[in-house]
Task: inverse folding
């Protein structure tokens, strides 16, 4: 297994993130939506507006699709094809934790202050993952992926 210094690839990753139609651009747009929803949810949770939060939380199901795409089309190829262990082994654990919290929030009927506290934890962790994708994962993708990998990733995004 290999390890790499991700920082040298951030500028290259930005080029792909800003290229319309590129899979990294699409994933970045999804991340922006996740961040915006999380910010709105945090503001409402802090104001103890459980009605608003209860109605916005289901909109964050975008995370499930986004994380499934990352697992199948980014984490697995990085680990199995390129021997890059970091994102696959560490970031996927974070993804699974966020999905678990999300599932718990959706199933819970008691929308009290404790529930709102869990909502805040959920949003905080989801937003941290967005930053890790931007600063670590996308740099690894740019360094390792070829055009075939990008094509499979785009197909995965479109069919998720």
Result:
């Amino acid at each position: 297994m290999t390890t790499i210094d991700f920082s040298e690839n951030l500028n290259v990753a930005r080029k792909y993130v800003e290229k319309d139609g590129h899979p990294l651009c699409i994933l970045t747009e999804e991340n922006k939506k996740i961040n915006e929803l999380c910010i709105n949810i945090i503001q409402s949770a802090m104001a103890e507006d459980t009605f608003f939060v209860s109605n916005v939380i289901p909109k964050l199901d975008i995370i499930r699709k986004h994380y499934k795409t990352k697992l199948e089309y980014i984490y697995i190829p990085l680990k199995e094809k390129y021997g890059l262990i970091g994102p696959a082994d560490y970031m996927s654990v974070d993804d699974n934790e966020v999905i678990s919290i999300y599932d718990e929030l959706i199933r819970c009927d008691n929308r009290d202050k404790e529930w709102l506290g869990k909502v805040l934890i959920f949003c905080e962790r989801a937003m941290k993952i967005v930053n890790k994708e931007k600063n670590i994962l996308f740099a690894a993708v740019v360094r390792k992926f070829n055009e075939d990998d990008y094509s499979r990733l785009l197909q995965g995004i479109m069919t998720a």
Notes: The longest helix spans residues 113-144. Residues 41 and 47 are 10 Å apart (CA to CA). The chain has seven helices and no strands. The mean pLDDT is 89.
